[in-house]
Design a protein that fits this description.
It contains 4 helices and 7 strands, in the order αβββααβαβββ. It has about 170 residues and is of the alpha/beta class.
Length: about 170
């Protein structure tokens, strides 16, 4: 009641947003199934804040479509590009409650990386493609400047591989 707080999961961004009096904005990005969607973010001066779950969260994905290896996170990379283009220097990303498990390939695709299989065919940037990934092109990569800091807000440690892996 006195001060909204969050543990890094869903709701953390809303708590921070109110505390810092950030302005809400919307940006069109690639959604979890490859179609364009509007995604919200918050900003003030050179600070930006958004929650990955606003695009690919469990609450946004119908149960029958919850396949973490096929859900795309390309829109997150696209939003980061937009924020940097808007002059944001401190970007905070809440990563709790997502319905995707792609090892970062989707975000990288949103930043311009391209992924190919052994035969040179372009791969969709989703977790399933990691099984066929043979090469990566950095030819069209968006370069994030040194003075831009991206910080992850998380409520758990979730490594991709190993005994505790996702």
């Amino acid at each position: 009641l006195l001060c909204p707080v969050g543990d890094g999961g869903e709701g953390t961004v809303d708590a921070i947003r109110h505390s810092l009096e950030l302005e809400e904005k919307w940006q069109e990005v690639t959604g979890p199934f490859g179609l364009k969607e509007s995604m919200r973010y918050f900003h003030k001066d050179q600070i930006a804040l958004f929650e990955v779950a606003d695009l690919v969260g469990l609450g946004k994905i119908p149960r029958e479509k919850r396949n973490p290896l096929h859900i795309q996170t390309k829109g997150i990379g696209e939003l980061i590009r937009h924020l940097v283009d808007q002059g944001m220097k401190d970007i905070y990303v809440g990563v709790g409650g997502t319905a995707s498990n792609d090892g970062g390939i989707g975000i990288a695709a949103g930043l311009g990386y391209q992924f190919y299989d052994r035969d040179g065919n372009a791969l969709t940037a989703c977790g399933q493609s990691l099984l066929n990934l043979s090469s990566v092109s950095t030819e069209n990569c968006y370069e994030i400047l040194e003075d831009v800091q991206i910080r992850i807000l998380a409520d758990v440690a979730s490594p991709l591989c190993g005994p505790q892996g996702a």
